[in-house]
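User: I'm new to structure prediction. If I give you an amino acid sequence, what do you actually give back? Let's try with this one:
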Amino acid sequence: MADFKNKVVYQIYPKSFKDSNGDGIGDLRGVIDALDYLADMGVDYLWLTPFFVSPQKDNGYDIADYLAIDPHFGTMDDFDALVKAADAKGLKIMLDMVLCHTSDQHAWFQRALAGDADYQRYYILRDGCNKTCADDPGEPPTNWQCAFGGSAWQWEPRLGKWYLHLHDVSQPDLDWTNPTVRDELAKVVRFWKERGVAGFRFDVINLVAKPEVFADDTQGLGRRLFADGPHIHEYLQELVRSAGIGDMVTVGEMASTDLENCIHYTRPANHELSMTFSFHHLKVDYKDGDKWALMPPDMMRLKQLFAAWQTGMAKAGGWNALFWCNHDQPRIVSRLGDDKEYREASAKMLAACIHLMRGTPYIYQGEELGMTNAGYTSIADYRDVESLNYYRILREQGKTEAEALTILTARSRDNGRTPMQWSAGPYAGFSTKEPWIPLAKNHATIHVEAAQRDEDSILAFYRRLIQLRHEMPIIAEGDIRFIEEDNPDVIAYERTWQGEQLTVLCNFRPTDVHLRHLSLQDFADAQKLLGNYPGREECLRPYEVLALYRQA
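Assistant: Good question. You get back a string of structure tokens that encode the predicted 3D arrangement of the chain. For your 552 residues, that looks like this:
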């Protein structure tokens, strides 16, 4: 198995990272230009989201050709140069594999539409319900809803069938019960492995094994029926064997999963994945479980979820991917921190909170700068298909324009897709041309050049976190126990390893907070390993984090 416990992954959304040719779209050469910055930070792996040929209906997660690079991002020579240049700086490349669905422009789907029966078996096609005659499509085969709103089924008259799309209508789901499909996808993974890729992230991989019987969901929108479905574990084991990736770092994005399955996915003896992304901790501000209904975050629920997943995975030998942000999430400093008065303090606290836990930390581009939500004030600024769909849905539900935009301001995936802020110059140093999506409103003051000049910057704090994980086995290997469990203001835990103890105290409030069961005086003999304020006081200051280390 790959060594990943003391490693840190940096996620790059190429379209918004760095534009090398002045067309307003980030590209692979832009990533090459930024390698010194990434190496200096100390990260180990660079995870790049899809840059394959795509009509970009879902920003590249709708793939039309798995084995070719979209000209917007460069060429295969550019990719090979990236792998070589990254390797020279001690950086490894991870790629995003979207194996649940293709674009409807993929040759496989186009051949299915043209009547090729073999390729029709690549996708999930069903007759409608309640048909009145042969030409009547009827109703969708089930009541399942797609991730972006509306039915998960689309009638296709050229096929005379409904096809399943758990995401956008332009993303028909592949039928993994067909062994030919599984073999084709393993070939895709092998192709990129042979080009020097060192790891893979598998998009919504736990949705590939559909239920054996397709039926209405009487309790929800279908997720509980098609997440972690039958044969998912054997499918993953087969993919690992067939593609020859058992010794590589792999992470699975798990939609609507549970702890038991994630233990199974990541237990080394099962030969499936190195680690998993789960999202329960990022739903604690969903009112009644609805992403598009706002409420203050439920801090006790957040604490309970961290404790359950950290201790549960540890006891059973599983492994977590640790993250707050990615290309599908709003910026965490705007969500659980304070993106104004306490932006720097809260960004540092949020970083330390997860980086010092048990698991492999992921940094999303700009997170190390404390980049914030976009602050868009017009629907014209948005590009994300999910956001545009839900704006329409919210208006149809009776929300005013202002109410719908307030929700998008907090929830849109575009919050994480604004261009990386490199400087105070034109277009934040991302490009010499207006970017494909508007910049965040505060780009002139939050950027790499300013962070590099400041020894106490959020960037410097991230460098220290990464260094500590590399140097201290207690962070990579230690046991974990949560403390102050009934305190809704604080997330606190202890790591222990071979006579060493690391206590991490995180204040999630913009006010001073006292511990309930401990006193900071109890740690008078402990070394302050890390903090975001000078010295120590009798209480935790607003958004303060303290990491206190002692040896037995």
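You can read the tokens as a compact description of the fold. Here is one thing that stands out. The chain has three domains: 9-100+179-376+442-463, 107-164, 477-551.
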